[in-house]
Write a structure and sequence with these properties.
The chain is mostly helical. It folds into two domains: 12-195, Growth Hormone, Chain: A (Up-down Bundle), CATH 1.20.1250; 220-412, MFS general substrate transporter like domains (Growth Hormone, Chain: A, Up-down Bundle), CATH 1.20.1250.20. The protein contains 18 helices and no strands. Helix 2 runs antiparallel to helix 9. The model is unreliable at 1-5 (pLDDT under 50).
Length: 412
């Protein structure tokens, strides 16, 4: 409620639309994170196996979710360009609720797989939500609006594990029931108060098979070739962000001997700082500098933050690096705003879908790269023990992205 109050207070117009979108994004991201606190116990029960086996099968669930995001984000975005944002978001919310109830009554691993498939499909609504924001904003204030939406996205990752942990203490199935009920309530709210925002829907016959075919996906990339450098830069940045979620717990345990409570508290603090950055810092900077400068400034801060964290030998340096990295997250909002301004309103869903697909793609391969790198540099036989390797690699990806954008800017 506090999160929604912050968002509501900062929007003078289109409040009903923004509140609905914010709740939808929080539910989507919370639905992804709510499973983590109860997943180990749930898998151990359904598989009748130990925690090591449960962890292996848990990775499969994450992979399934990411694959669905990769495939369906551009599809839902394109569908919303033709049929409007309202029906896509409402149907997705119903799908989200159905998934939650399915997970709550799961009695086999295959049902969990099915649940993750549905969650990945319906959770790909971030692209449609961002397209909705593009519908109701102009170029001058879009960056600020995207900052608020990204704040809601981050808030979901705070709320999800918190709900899962607290309610899951009573019963491992209760978090899913709770989320399903919230999803239904938001569907009802959206049905009565969320109007259609896409007033310039594409004309012509919609061809679903063309939309999902690999050839069409390649054509979509070709359509955006003029901004290919920005899309590549966005991909590198998206990949780098997975270093945090993949290795933070392992890194702090190996480097600083943190316990579960310290790790949990640190993640909450990180989420709160990230929320404040998107709410206030982005809003302030959007009035002072262009989207491109916002991206460059953010990339510089992110890279510096990653390198400081990777070599930190004291907690104070770790938090300094983390603070810089979180302030650098303004580049994500800059990317979204700049790219949305490069396409016509009729193609906002397609563009945001492309960005969603990129996020899904990096979720598939980046976590493995970072966790395996951590393993190689921390195992007993490692030539050099370097637990911060994942953050150094992420910093290098950020620098490559920054270099590409600067060279592209100079050439123009």
């Amino acid at each position: 409620m506090v999160i929604l109050l912050f968002i509501f207070m900062n929007f003078k117009n289109n409040n009903k639309i923004v509140i609905f979108i914010s709740i939808t994004i929080i539910l989507d991201t919370a639905g992804f994170g709510i499973i983590f606190p109860v997943l180990p116990d749930l898998l151990e029960k359904l598989l009748n196996a130990n925690i090591a086996v449960a962890a292996k099968y848990g990775d499969v669930l994450t992979l399934v979710y990411a694959l669905m995001q990769f495939v369906f984000a551009p599809i839902l975005g394109t569908v919303s360009d033709y049929f409007g944002r309202r029906p896509v978001l409402l149907l997705s919310l119903l799908g989200f609720s159905f998934d939650c109830f399915l997970m709550a009554f799961a009695n086999s691993y295959s049902m969990l797989i099915l649940g993750r498939v549905i969650a990945g499909i319906t959770g790909a609504t971030f692209a449609v939500s961002c397209a909705t924001i593009a519908d109701i904003t102009n170029d001058s204030d879009r960056t600020k609006y995207y900052g608020f939406i990204n704040a809601a996205f981050g808030a979901g990752f705070i709320v999800g594990p918190l709900i899962g942990g607290l309610i899951g203490e009573c019963n491992m199935y209760y978090p899913f029931l709770f989320s399903g009920i919230l999803g239904l309530c938001n569907t009802v709210y959206g049905y009565f108060f969320f109007p259609e925002t896409n007033q310039t829907r594409q004309k012509g016959r919609f061809r679903f098979l063309d939309t999902i075919s690999p050839v069409s996906q390649l054509k979509r990339i070709v359509e955006f070739r003029k901004i290919a450098v920005f899309l590549i830069g966005y991909l590198l940045v998206s990949a780098s962000s997975h270093s945090m979620e993949s290795t933070w717990a392992y890194f702090t345990i190996d480097k600083f001997d943190w316990g579960k409570q310290q790790i949990g508290a640190s993640l909450t603090i990180i989420g709160v700082i990230g929320f404040v950055v998107q709410i206030y810092l982005v809003s302030f900077l959007a009035k002072q500098i262009s989207d491109f400068k916002l991206i460059v400034f953010g990339l510089m801060l992110s890279a510096l933050g990653f390198f400081i964290m990777s070599f930190a030998d004291k907690t104070i340096y770790l938090w300094i690096g983390m603070g810089l990295y979180l302030m650098g997250s303004i580049q994500q909002t800059g990317f979204q705003s700049l790219l949305s301004k490069t396409v016509h309103r009729n193609d906002q869903g397609k563009m945001q879908g492309m960005l969603g697909s990129i996020n899904g793609l990096t979720t598939i391969f980046a976590p493995f790269v970072f966790t395996y790198s951590f393993y190689l540099f921390t195992k007993e036989s490692a030539v050099v023990h370097f637990s911060g390797i994942a953050f150094s690699l992420a910093g290098l990806l950020i620098l490559v992205s920054l270099l590409l954008l600067i060279i592209n800017k100079i050439q123009k």
